[in-house]
Design a protein that fits this description.
Elements lengths: L13 H4 L6 E3 L5 E8 L5 E8 L5 E7 L14 E7 L5 E7 L5 E8 L5 E7 L14 E7 L5 E7 L5 E8 L5 E7 L14 E7 L5 E7 L4 E10 L5 E11 L5 E12 L5 E7 L4 E9 L5 E8 L13 E7 L5 E7 L5 E8 L5 E7 L14 E7 L5 E8 L4 E9 L2 E8 L3 E2 L2 E2 L4 E8 L1
Antiparallel strand pairs: 1-26, 2-31, 3-4, 4-5, 5-6, 7-8, 8-9, 9-10, 11-12, 12-13, 13-14, 15-16, 16-17, 17-18, 19-20, 20-21, 21-22, 23-24, 24-25, 25-26, 27-28, 28-31, 29-30
Amino acid sequence: MVPINWMEGYVVKRLCIVLFVSLTVFLSAKLSVVNSVRLGGNGNDLASDVVVEEDGSVLISGYTDSSTGTVFSSHGQEDFLIVKLDSDLDLQWWKTFGGSKRDIAEAIALTADGGYLLAGLTESADGDVTGNNGIGDFWVIRLSAEGELIWERTLGGSGQDHAYDVLEKPSGNILVAGYTRSEDGDVSGYDWGEDFWIVELDSEGNLLSQWVVGAYRSEDCAKRLYLGEDGSVYAVGYFAYRDCGISCNYVDNQMSILKISATGEVEWFDQFGGQWFEDGFDIVAKSDGSAIAIGSQDAGVSLFSNGLGGKDFWVTSVDDKGNELWSKNYGGSFTDVARCIVLTEDGSLIVAGQTTSDDIDVRENSGMNDAWIIELDFRGDIVDTISYGGSGDDVVNSACFEGNSIIFAGYSVSFQEGNAEKKEKDLWIFEVAN
């Protein structure tokens, strides 16, 4: 355990570090919230991703633009943020990295040597960022187990390049995924608009290979990666097509899934959905090569759709060749957006995101967005649900399964100071027993 006084120059008072969020919990027979903490400063502090170590320690990536408080930015605008909590969700240490402009950490991964990888967007070219190829770049940093910076790399070209996920392969190589709008610099094979851009780096951050996948007149963005048991790589995101015959407006938006073989060949790149608005945020794969992806679908309510009203949680199952097996909608009459999925040891699925609904599949709502978590069986039927939130926006961005519980991370604005409601976002981490 690293002591809190490890952070030079930071004055940390435990009372200001971890506060239990005063939220209304709607418990079901099985899923139940067993711990919840919020931490932040005087600005916006958001958790984008979460991983859990073998000893139960919880690592959070995200960003902060706070200037004072429990966590704060010391470089400029938003900074990369990493936070380490113990298994009881008590703060151990935190660090920020960045330059004078925007630096947004979108993902975190554990490394075999006990350290961490963070990846996201940088618009800086100073401070901890040694270079920038254009408007914005992939920024990947490698940290020691104590959070010390080992190396950092920017990747991209003269356009906007934004990373959303990172993972370490068993070989020690590193995969980073997002989108590129560049046709120069580090990017090779750019087509049009935004393209899926996945890069493979060695353990020192040197570029080994890359995959640029997209379609003409479309925006294609990879949001999450998943490494299959056989070494295959899955990436999920969205495809947005523009009809440039007259107005160049978007006329189609679908979930996109890319599969790359263990040998580095693109096996398939397919879109899922129809005439409605769909997108993809997370994916898991099973041992047989099939995959389950989640996101949202805005199909409305009609005889011709499965829509429940507004946006719905949308879950799609595909086989190892990319053929759709089934897809289902979950939610209520208003907006329900699925952000993360975990596959439990018994084969059930936990899907989480946010909801503004309070009917149909959603039992309760405390106001604005609440975290909404559903458990599905292997057929996609609902086993259990839980809503968790307060009077403000409470959003889940990521989840990690550990033992008999699941750690969720995102942000919350639901806490009261007298009669005034706080408007800034705070990091929000909570544990649900399953």
